[in-house]
């Protein structure tokens, strides 16, 4: 199931592949000769080079780096061609030379690795033009790019619920509503919208890191000028009723993460997210928008919610969320993966014998744009 993408990519001439930190049947991928050399380079005919992950060869042993000479030998002989050594490169350099001199790593393996790296560099024209082309640098982040990103946000939103049983759909929301409460930790946070690997490795929090629009910004820019938008990050359980809100929009989700920092045994929405959902949705008609890079536990709240939207990570263009919430465009997105009920069901995949998801693979409700407000597609 997971190999199909590699087969197609290799057939189309992909130049580099990175080994994973993971293990297969107890063998670290960085030391897995059967998969890296015999299968990838041999059976699939991969002609590019394999690069290690950040300190990937160190983690062949446990504790990491406890036998570095062995890690060098095992990884290079397994088929790693280029090694990512972020700090003490001289240790790797000296260790590799020593192992070659001792014939622990054959010179033929070094020749193969160097040939693969040079082949890719020649194919890219790096010896003729070693520096990147900066002629389009000013286009990065241009309005045209942002419009395309905003379109991607609109099309990737997945509507999971639209109206409680026996009630009419709540979305799209009316732009001329009298008063709308926007709540939650992710409603006004560009860093949270962007997720990990943005600005910093683990991502950031706040709105001072990059240009863009938050979901709150988008809502304010979309509604009628007479509509009052009230933002309260963590409202009390009586805030909506006392404020006589017509609608509540709750935006919660996961904080940014990258790689192993995102490992979770429970996949729950961090506090105070669940409390905000409870407080807002018990008092007024509510739309809950989940900002996350993956499905999370939401089954306990679904019955209390009028409408539920998976926004994934909308990045810098929160306006794209508002475009669809208020009917300028319709919801069209479908789940690219199964949304589970409980973590004890995982792993869960479409076609499993006991497939019992909260929302199945490919699910996604649709809405029609409101004709009077729809804007032309790009």
UniProtKB/TrEMBL annotation:
Residues 2-120 form the Glycoside hydrolase family 3 N-terminal domain. Keywords: Glycosidase, Hydrolase. GO terms for molecular function: beta-glucosidase activity. GO terms for biological process: glucan catabolic process. It holds the Pfam family Glyco_hydro_3_C. Residues 157-366 form the Glycoside hydrolase family 3 C-terminal domain. This is Beta-glucosidase. It comes from Gossypium schwendimanii (Cotton).
């Amino acid at each position: 199931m997971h190999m199909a993408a590699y087969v197609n990519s290799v057939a189309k001439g992909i130049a580099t592949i990175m080994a994973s930190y993971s293990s297969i049947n107890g063998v670290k991928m960085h030391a897995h000769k059967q998969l890296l050399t015999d299968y990838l380079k041999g059976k699939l005919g991969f002609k590019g080079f394999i690069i290690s992950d950040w300190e990937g060869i160190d983690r062949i042993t446990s504790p990491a780096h406890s036998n570095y000479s062995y890690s060098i030998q095992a990884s290079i002989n397994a088929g790693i061609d280029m090694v990512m050594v972020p700090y003490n490169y001289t240790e790797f350099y000296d260790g590799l030379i020593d192992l070659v001199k001792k014939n622990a790593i054959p010179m033929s393996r070094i020749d193969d690795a160097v040939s693969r790296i040079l082949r890719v560099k020649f194919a890219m024209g790096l010896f003729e033009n070693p520096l990147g082309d900066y002629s389009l640098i000013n286009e990065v982040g241009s309005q045209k790019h942002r419009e395309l990103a905003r379109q991607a946000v609109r099309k990737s939103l997945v509507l999971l619920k639209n109206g409680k049983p026996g009630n009419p759909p709540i979305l799209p929301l009316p732009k001329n509503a009298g008063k709308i409460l926007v709540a939650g930790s992710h409603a006004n946070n560009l860093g949270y919208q962007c997720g990990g690997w943005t600005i910093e490795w683990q991502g950031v929090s706040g709105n001072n890191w990059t240009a863009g629009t938050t979901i709150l910004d988008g809502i304010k820019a979309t509604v009628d000028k007479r509509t009052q938008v009230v933002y309260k990050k963590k409202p009390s359980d009586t805030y909506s009723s006392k404020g006589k809100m017509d609608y509540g929009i709750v935006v919660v989700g996961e904080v940014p993460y990258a790689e192993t920092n995102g490992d979770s045994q429970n996949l729950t929405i961090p506090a105070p997210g669940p409390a905000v959902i409870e407080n807002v949705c018990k008092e007024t008609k509510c739309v809950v928008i989940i900002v996350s890079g993956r499905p999370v536990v939401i089954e306990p709240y679904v019955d209390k919610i009028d409408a539920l939207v998976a926004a994934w990570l909308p990045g810098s263009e929160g306006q794209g969320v508002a475009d669809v919430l208020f009917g300028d465009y319709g919801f069209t997105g479908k789940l690219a993966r199964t949304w589970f009920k409980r973590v004890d069901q995982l792993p869960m995949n479409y076609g499993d014998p006991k497939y019992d998801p909260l929302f199945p693979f490919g699910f996604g409700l649709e809405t029609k744009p409101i004709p009077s407000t729809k804007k032309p597609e790009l």
